[in-house]
Each structure stands twice: as C-alpha cells, then as structure tokens.
Design goal:
Chain A contains no helices and eleven strands. Chain A is mainly beta and 109 residues long. With 116 residues, chain B is mainly β. The chains are: A mainly beta (109), B mainly beta (116). At the A-B interface, strand 5, strand 9 and strand 10 of A face strand 5 and strand 10 of B.
C-alpha cells in the first residue's frame, strides 16, 4: 500500500463548477500537507500547504485536512479553463515529501 | 530571479549508454532534490542534498545511478548504463533550510529521458 493514495482521474467539469480533489495517507507522523499543480510538460508548483487540521483558504482554493481520518482535500470554486492541470497532493515528514499520483483535471469552457 | 534550471530538456539515448542531467538551483537554496516522475505517477525522491551532503539517498539505485553536488550549488545526476525502465522525467527542486521547517520546494521543468 502506498503511503499516499490519491483519487484517480481524470476529472472533466464545466467551467464554474466546484471541484473536489482528495487524498488519504497512512503515516500519522506526516506533518505538512501540500497541493501542487502541474501543467503539461512543466514541473510541479506549490499551490497551498498547511500543517494543521481544518481549512485553509486562498482565493478560489481551499485546502482541508482531517488528521483523525488521515484525509486531505482540495476544493476549487468557480473553476476556470486555466485550472486544467494535474493536481498532486504531497505530504511531508522532516523534509521528505511523498507525493500522490495526481488527478488530471479538465475544465471545459 | 531565475528559477531552478535544468538541462537538457529532452534526451533520447540507446539502452546501456550513459546519460547525465544538470541542475542549477535557485540562488541561496541550500537544499536540493532529485525526483523521478514516471508517466501517470507522482514524483519519487531519488536523493536530497543539504549543501554538499547527501542526507537521503535511500531511493537512489546505486548500482547505476550517481549524483554529486560540488560546492553545494549545481548538481548532476548520472545513469550508467541506462535501461529501458529509466525512461521518465527527472525533476530537480530546491528549497531553503528544509530541516528547520517546511519551506516551499521550487521545481525545474525537468529532463524527459527516453531510453530506446
């Protein structure tokens, strides 16, 4: 079993939809929880990170962590075609990040 | 400010040949990572450097892979000899003082290796 499991895609939604991306993890020692966005043929770029249970909001993006369930989510409100990319969850312990396999999102105009 | 720079962007080689990738991290970043990303998967850490020291190379296949980070700045990752299964994107990332707190890792665009 992988340490980080991410809901497989792909996801295709119409513009303006709310998108939910999810991951589970197995190691309770994980301390930091991150979401990366990766456009085709580019390196991942950090979208958001948090280290506590609860919600963290940044514009149209909300990261949610539930440490008791070892579950993390990323919500995208009012999705735009420019949000089309692969989203990777990553969980960090002592400087070592473990990534999920990514969910590819397509937002159709 | 320039981001993480990797070269080459693409490389096609025959199996059993050697190949090397180069990474120039963001100025001032003392932590450097090499990741391998297979198609449809997330990046997997190969090696992490704190300055010149490799502090985590547990996932590096040491029979054919080697890495160095001379003077704690640029780094090279080498494969010799390459195998078909090494075809992947090799990503370099850098960050500042990863051991004290979580800090953002910045990724380069990667080197896409195809072994034929």
């Amino acid at each position: 079993q992988k340490e980080v499991e991410q809901d497989p895609g792909p996801l295709s939604v119409p513009e303006g939809a709310i998108v939910s991306l999810n991951c589970t993890y197995s190691n309770s020692a994980f301390q930091y929880f991150m979401w990366y966005r990766q456009y085709s043929r580019k390196g991942p770029e950090l979208l958001m990170y948090t280290y506590s249970s609860g919600n963290k909001e940044d514009g149209r993006f909300t990261a949610q962590v539930d440490k008791s369930s070892k579950y993390i989510s990323l919500f995208i409100r009012d999705s735009q075609p420019s949000d089309s990319a692969t989203y990777l969850c990553a969980i960090d312990n002592a400087g070592k990040s473990t990534f999920g396999d990514g969910t590819t999102l397509t937002v159709k105009p | 400010e320039a981001g993480v720079v990797q070269s080459p962007r693409y490389k096609i080689i025959e199996k059993k040949q050697p190949v090397a990738f180069w990474c120039n991290p963001i100025s001032g970043h003392n932590t450097l990572y090499w990741y391998r990303q297979n198609l449809g998967q997330g990046p997997e850490l190969l090696i992490r450097y704190e300055n010149e020291e490799a502090v985590d190379d547990s996932q590096l296949p040491k029979d054919r892979f080697s890495a160095e980070r001379l003077k704690g700045v640029d780094s090279t990752l080498k494969i010799q000899p390459a195998e078909l299964g090494d075809s992947a994107v090799y990503l370099c990332a850098s960050s500042y003082q990863a051991w004290e707190m979580n800090t953002e890792a910045f990724f380069g665009q990667g080197t896409r290796l195809t072994v034929v």
